Each structure stands twice: as structure tokens, then as C-alpha cells.
Amino acid sequence: xxxxxxxxxxxxxxxxxxxxxxxxxxxxxxxxxxxxxxxxxxxxxxxxxxxxxxxxxxxxxxxxxxxxxxxxxxxxxxxxxxxxxxxxxxxxxxxxxxxxxxxxxxxxxxxxxxxxxxxxxxxxxxxxxxxxxxxxxxxxxxxxxxxxxxxxxxxxxxxxxxxxxxxxxxxxxxxxxxxxxxxxxxxxxxxxxxxxxxxxxxxxxxxxxxxxxxxxxxxxxxxxxxxxxxxxxxxxxxxxxxxxxxxxxxxxxxxxxxxxxxxxxxxxxxxxxxxxxxxxxxxxxxxxxxxxxxxxxxxxxxxxxxxxxxxxxxxxxxxxxxxxxxxxxxxxxxxxxxxxxxxxxxxxxxxxxxxxxxxxxxxxxxxxxxxxxxxxxxxxxxxxxxxxxxxxxxxxxxxxxxxxxxxxxxxxxxxxxxxxxxxxxxxxxxxxxxxxxxxxxxxxxxxxxxxxxxxxxxxxxxxxxxxxxxxxxxxxxxxx
Length: 480
Description:
Blueprint: H1 2-29, H2 33-46, H3 55-58, H4 61-99, H5 106-127, H6 136-179, H7 187-195, H8 199-218, H9 231-243, H10 246-261, H11 269-274, H12 279-296, H13 309-315, H14 321-344, H15 356-367, H16 376-384, E1 394-399, H17 405-419, E2 425-430, E3 440-444, H18 448-454, E4 459-463, H19 470-479
Parallel strand pairs: 1-2, 1-3, 3-4
Helix pairs in contact: 1-4, 1-8, 2-4, 4-5, 4-6, 5-6, 7-12, 9-10, 9-12, 9-14, 12-14
């Protein structure tokens, strides 16, 4: 028993570390997704094989993918570690890996951006309080310039060629899988990883950079479709809607809209956790969808983020709609068929599945694994900052990336307040970027400690389910 517990702890610790690594990669990519979409749209429209070929406008494509996008990632990575100074030195050093390579340096930017920010942070800590008055700006500017210059030269001569070699190895591995029709097998890893929130490490850390390089070379890449295919999740939700029972059945139609049209795949994870055997259904859907994509030559010009069917249409190159739709439909049908079969054959003893609310809460606990549990001090801080209507002007809903669940939660709370006639601003943000003027901060319960660290003066409310929480109604009643 002790050995088993130790093994579980070790496994959980490894999963948490990979999740944290995925969050770091996601934190560098997600704020810049708009720039990636802009590049993808320009590529789809104006390259020689695009919808409206234009040599003059197509001149934007190469500089954006080689310079703009890696620099944005490098800046964001440095900023995550050491604020604006970290962002500036991250961009400077990223320029070194860009010049030191002949391919888009996304992996290189993800590496040197945070590294440069960390090095500068250590220097700033070492000289803190030791600079004579009046020399602060001089030291700050020259330290960043000197350290950034040295690191950029090192990146040019060492890291750039190294990352290019690694990227070539990974690209050759992908080409091997494609040439031998083995690419669909990757979904055996990807689909369970999505449910465990390891998709960011796989998608943004490995597949995305290789896919962008491939897209620049041939005009599209199937790798953009491996993790983002909405078909497997849609099949699961359709099965619950048509053959499921209880609250899961009644909530599935709304989840379908959020997942398939909104592109927020997290919404279907609780449905799998209620019946873990359904992981076989999403694996089957993912494998069959990728096989269809590969057989029909499907591909996207850039990452469809979020993984909405609308994003798929926007990122599909001219002439590629039929292969794209075929892969999504096949994945949906296979996932639905397997999920429906598994739901119908559930044993009597298995009827006591966890409720959808409990499953959703479990998802949130998994997603925020590694975050410290709320302490007595936290509870005291929350209680001390309870606000009344008279001193509440802004409510902020925060999540990890500030784009998915927080946007949905803010929308739900905003509508409830409007229906009650309460005129208060409700916005969403990343938990690390909560505005200083936030009066009330709403987060999933395992993120509350981080939110308090960012803005200790606000009132903090913890919830389990960002779509349906009794805390929303309690807050509305208090502010009416």
C-alpha cells in the first residue's frame, strides 16, 4: 500500500511538472495568438496559391514568421520572468537565434526569452540596494544592453544552430510518420493528454513550431490539426445528449455550442472524467480523423486557436475545405459511435458516476495541480476585503491564460448582473495580470492564492464551476 501511494505521488508530481511546463509554453504563445492568426490570414489570402494572390501583399508573410512572431514570443517569455526589462532582453536575445538559423525560431524564442529574463533578474537582485543615487538609470540601461548583447552573440553562435538541428530532427521524425502512414498513432498520446491538461506542452512546445516551419515551406501543415480537431469532443457531447442521463444529458447541448463553435475544448473534459472509459472514444475519433486528414491531404496554414470550426474554416487554404470537413466529420462519427456504445453498456454498479458538477470541479483541481491549497491566512484576507455595492466598480474573472474559462465566466456573471439591474464592469484576465483597480476577483478555487498574491487588496471569491456556481447568485444578491 505504501509503495502504491508513493508511486501515485511520484506520478502525480511528474504530471504536475509537465502541466507547469505546458503552462509556461502556453503563457508565451497564447497572448500572441492574434498575431499568429493575422499571419495565417495573410498567408491564406495572398500567397501564390491563396484566395487572392498578390505578390506585393504576400511580401508580409516571410518577415512576419521569421522575425515578428519569434520576437513576440521571446519578449513575452522574458516578461513572464522579469517584467518589461525581461521582455526587452528576451527580444534582444531572440534576435540572436533568429539570425543564427534559417528556419522560424519559435522553439529558440521559447528557450532564450525566459532564460535571458532570468539572467537579468539575477543581476538586478545582486546589485539591488548597492547602486549610488543618481546612477540607477545608467546601470539599468547599460546592464541590460551589455548582458543582452553578450547573450545574443551566444544565441547566434550556439543556441540558434542547436535549435535548428533539433527542429530538423523533429521534422524528419514527423515526415517519417507521414510517409509510413503512422501519423494517426500520435493521437493515442494526444487525446488522453488533453484531458490531463498536457496539451499545451505537446501542441505549443513541439507540434506548433514544426507545423509553422512546414506551413512556410509547403503552404499548409496537418500538424495544426492533430490536437485541435473538434470532432472527437463533439462526438462525446453528442453521445451524452442522445443516450446519456441526468444532468450530463441536459447540459450537453450547451456544451456542444461552447466546444464546437467557441473552440473551448475544456468543456467536454468533465464528461470523460465521469466515465473514464470514454477516453477510448476520443482516441478512436482522433486517430480516425487524423487518418482521414492524411489520406485526403488536409492541412491548415496556421494554428486554429481556439479550436473552433470557425477557426478551421479561416485557416484552411484554398481547395482544402472538403478534406478538412471530412476529417472533422469522421472523427465526430467514430467518437460518437464508440461513446454511445460505452454509455449504453454501462453496468448497474457504474450508474453511480460522479455528477457533472463534481467532475467539473475535478477538472479544475487537475488543471491547477501544483497550486498551494488555501490557507487560514488566505481565508482571513478574503474575509477582511468583502466589498459592498457602494465600493465595487470593477469585477475581474481570472483564469490561467485569461482567454478561455475566464471569458465564459465573466460573460455568465455579466449577464446575471445586467438582469438584476446592477451596472458594474465585469472583465476577464490572466491570473498573473489582474488589474490593480479590481474590486472583486473571481477565480477557480485552486487559483485563489495566486490571485491574492497579485492583488491582495481586492475581495477574492473562489468557485468550482465557472459555468454554473451558486456564488454568482450570492454575489448578485449582495450587489443589488
